[in-house]
Amino acid sequence: MLKIGHRGARGYEPENTLISFQKALDMGVDGIELDVHLSADGLVVVIHDETVDRTTDGSGLVNEKTYEQLSHFRIEKNQNIPTLKEVLDLVDRKCFVNIELKGNGTAAPVVAMIQEYVQVQKWSYDDFIVSSFEWKMLSETVALDSNIPIAVLTETTIAAALDFAKKIKARAINPDFILLEIGTTEQLQREGFKVYPWTVNEIEDIKTIQNYGVDGIISDFPDRIQ
Ligand code: G3P
Ligand code: CA
């Protein structure tokens, strides 16, 4: 059962920051999950929302700011918005990286970065998972490079996610854990997919979901996953 740190170790450190990812690594995670958008000048940056308002001291849309502008916004504990490259260099293959495509236009630059890390830095495709609720971006990812492991995110319907996962030959289906039952988990696995539900934080929920036999759990508190 894989232990996957949501936005790093969001229960302990500011989400999607280098100290959050380091905390998750210190907890011995198998993988980290993070969210990406594009800056106005085309850099892949790690931030959940489409604006900087909630998590930084700045305001405005991420994709209307250059990376130089974004880099000046402060996050708690003296952090700033990292680039995807900074996070990958921090991780240094110590765990896999689940990149969730949030912002429009992120598929192509993320594929290019994965290919660079595989070809130049000697990472493996299995060091990555690309996921998204925007399934069109997953189709685009597969069309650009079918070696990249894909996870289909869903917060509404497992049946539609299963159909789409078959179509694009995804590796995994990552549902909101509320949608899961033991029968559905087993069905998805019989169909050949890994199941990594999110965001499972309470100990009781973690136990229940573990009893379903899922392949991994995405949690703000990855140390709670035994
Ligand atoms: O990748 C799973 C989970 O992170 C999806 O929801 O809103 O936390 O990005 P959200
Ligand atoms: Ca996410």
UniProtKB/TrEMBL annotation:
Pfam families, sorted: GDPD
Protein name in UniProt: Glycerophosphodiester phosphodiesterase
Entry's Gene Ontology BP terms: lipid metabolic process
PANTHER family associated with the record: GLYCEROPHOSPHODIESTER PHOSPHODIESTERASE, CYTOPLASMIC (PTHR46211:SF1), GLYCEROPHOSPHORYL DIESTER PHOSPHODIESTERASE (PTHR46211)
InterPro entries found in the cross-reference section: GP_PDE_dom, PLC-like_Pdiesterase_TIM-brl
Residues covered by the GP-PDE domain: 1-226
PROSITE patterns: GP_PDE (PS51704)
Recorded GO MF terms: phosphoric diester hydrolase activity
Native organism: Flavobacterium faecale
